[in-house]
Amino acid sequence: MKKIIILSAVVFFTNISAQGSVGTPTTEGFLEKIFINGLGGSFKYEEINGSAYINKNFQTANTTKDYAPIEARYNTYADQVEFQQNNQIYILPKEDRFSRIKFSNSNESLVLLTINGKPGYFFELYAGESKSLLKKVSSKVSIPEKSKNSYASDDTTPSFITTYTYFFKIGDKFFELPNKRKKIYDIFPEKKKELEDKIKVNKIDINTDQGLIKLLNLL
After folding, report:
1. Cα 169 to Cα 21, 64, 119, 189, distances in angstroms
2. pLDDT in tens, 95-154
3. Any residues with CB less than 8 A from the CB of 7 and at least 6 apart, and which?
4. 111, 130, 141, 216 from 138: Cα distances, Å
5. At CA 168, angle to CA 218 and CA 215, rounded to 5?
6. 23, 37, 152, 211: least surrounded by Cβ within 10 Å?
7. CA-CA distance, 113 to 72, in Å (whole number)?
8. How far is 117 from 106, CA to CA, in rounded Å?
């Protein structure tokens, strides 16, 4: 018989860098009750443009073979996996036993890793025998400054800004990929010329996920 994940309390108070923090729950609906403070004010998630979720809907997900599937979603702002159980929302503990979450519908895998001394969740786009391509999806909240120009908009509604950071994992080492893809070659100076030639000959677009996978397999 598979185990069921049981938590005694909802844990929603987490410090989130300099962007603010996720506040404790209120009695309102879930999307309303989680609020962000420390941003010069307090905002409910529903009051912020955009979304902290890649998919707001809960999806069936598997953690380990010893535990029953859960209904989960990933919060890119808080870097937390939230799951629903008995009409309550919980935060999945960042523990080794729950270090891999696979969503059934999307077939996406979320893995818990420590990179640069900080544990966090990463989407595993490719996993070979000793190499993998990882994508970190992060969100922060941006609040527009009130315009000093009377003709400009005074809309100061905050927005979620999402960023994507890619990593190569080769053996036990992680390599953060620069946003300017052509600078990737500088990470591997001893193979720079060889890689440039192979990328050109094989017409590999390293600005795409599939292109990065092909590049990784050339290393």
Report:
1. 30, 22, 15, 17
2. 998 999 999 999 999 999 999 899 999 999 999 989 999 999 999 988 877 666 665 566
3. 90, 91, 93
4. 14, 26, 10, 23
5. 25
6. 152
7. 19
8. 29
Q: What stretches of 25-105 show up as alpha helix (H) in DSSP?
A: 30-33
One-letter amino acid identity for 100?
R
Matching residue, tokens 């080492």: 173
Q: Yes or no: say if 133 and 35 are a contact pair by the CB < 8 Å rule.
A: no
The DSSP output letter for 199 is H
Distance CA 53, CA 201 (A): 39
Between CA 124 and CA 136 the distance in angstroms is 9
Whether 6 shows a pLDDT value over 90: the answer reads no
Torsion over CA: 208, 211, 213, 218 (sign): negative
Average pLDDT of the residues of the chain: 81
* C-alpha–C-alpha distance, residues 33 and 44, integer Å: 7
**Rounded CA gap, 174 and 157, in Å?**
37
Rg (CA), the chain: 20
Token duo for residue 216: 């990784």
**Alpha-carbon span 101 to 103, nearest angstrom:** 7
- Give the global pTM: 0.81
